[in-house]
Design brief:
The protein is an alpha/beta fold and 331 residues long. The chain folds into 2 domains: 190 residues, Isopropylmalate Dehydrogenase (3-Layer(aba) Sandwich), CATH 3.40.718.10; 132 residues, Isopropylmalate Dehydrogenase (3-Layer(aba) Sandwich). It is built from 12 helices and 11 strands. The protein has an 11-stranded mixed β-sheet with strand order 3-2-1-4-11-10-5-6-9-7-8, with helices on both faces. Helix 1 crosses helix 2 and helix 7 packs across helix 8. The radius of gyration is 20 Å and the shape is globular. The protein starts with a strand and ends in an 8-residue tail after the last helix.
């Protein structure tokens, strides 16, 4: 199994976290350490990690790391020097090239999963490159009509119906066909990538108290409930819609394999409260596994040695378990 790790914005914490992760990966692969969730790699597992980025930059941000068992570098050259914490417009093209190299490897069957360190969307767009995020870029390059953002951490899996939309646009965006697309992808990838034979999915309502029988909004009655009923008839185990303010109570959410939230800030604050620093961002619906960290470029921490590598380690071990669910710590 081969994972490729794009090292992200060169001025941010991505390069140094990638080097730290490479050292940990060699120990994890050899069975000397466990992943943050306790997952260990069985002895003899063929597991490799390729860092995609400028080799000299990686050395400068973490010292020498060549010779680590199972680790190599797919070199992509910086356009300009990248001082820690200082964005350089010319390096935006470098960031895109690292992504393109990763995509080419999975498309060719030379890698099984992509793990991404954080990028800086603002500087990429300032350079004249249209880029709204990893998720959208990977979706476009893969040519798939829909992907689903799911974050994992703190004992929760939380997927989103809508992602980066202003709140006033959310109700109109939620339609029966959209819910069907999202839930089909979520159910299929929970089976394929997480080894869950019949996923049990809890669905949040949109409105407070899930609409209170129509007194606080009719989206549950007119859109969400009919869509869920049709999908249940197909055999998908759906529950709800539930009021989001009580669904995340530990004793209530525990029986479910995943929660489907209607919008970004309905589900993710709870998950990040439970797991920040060890959360993993996953893109479902791609023809390959893609995981990422739950944080940004942290320009103020770049080069200081104070950035926490925990989320990246978790993203790597999650990717391994998604490629081969039999390796999961929960198997």
């Amino acid at each position: 199994m081969r994972l490729v790790l794009t090292t992200g914005e060169p001025a941010g914490v991505g390069p140094e976290l990638a080097v730290a992760a490479a050292r940990w990966f060699a120990d994890w692969r050899a069975g000397r350490v466990a992943a943050p969730d306790g997952m260990r790699v069985p002895a003899g597992t063929d597991l490799r990690l390729s860092l995609i980025g400028d080799a000299e930059l990686l050395r400068s941000r973490g010292g020498e790391f060549a010779g680590l068992a199972g680790v190599d570098v797919e070199p992509v050259s910086l356009r300009m020097p990248a001082p820690a914490g200082q964005l350089v417009l010319a390096n935006s093209d470098y960031v895109i090239e690292t992504l393109d190299r990763a995509i080419a490897l999975v498309d060719a069957g030379a890698a099984d999963a992509i793990v991404t360190a954080p990028v800086h969307k603002g500087i990429i767009n300032q350079a004249g490159l249209s880029f709204s995020g990893h998720t959208e870029y990977l979706q476009e390059r893969a040519g798939v009509p829909r992907v689903v953002m799911m974050l994992v951490g703190g004992g929760l899996r939380v997927a989103l119906v809508t992602t980066h939309l202003p709140l006033r646009a959310v109700p109109d965006a939620i339609t029966g066909p959209l819910l069907a697309e999202i839930i089909h992808i979520l159910d299929a990838d929970l089976r394929k990538r997480f080894g869950i034979a019949r996923p049990s999915i809890a669905v949040c309502g949109l409105n407070p108290h899930a609409g209170e029988g129509g007194y606080l909004g009719r989206e549950e009655i007119e859109v969400i409930e009919p869509a869920l009923a049709a999908l249940r008839a197909e055999g998908i185990a759906l529950h709800g819609p539930f009021p989001a303010d009580t669904l995340f109570v530990p004793s209530i959410v525990a029986p479910y394999d995943a929660v489907l939230a209607m919008y970004h800030d309905q589900g993710l604050p709870v998950l990040k409260h439970a797991s920040f620093g060890l959360g993993v961002n996953i893109t479902l619906g791609l023809p390959y596994v893609r995981t990422s960290v739950d944080h940004g470029t942290a320009l103020d921490l770049a080069g200081t040695g104070r950035a926490d590598v925990g989320s990246l380690l978790q993203a790597i071990s999650t990717a391994v378990a998604m490629v081969d669910p039999s390796l999961s710590s929960q198997s």
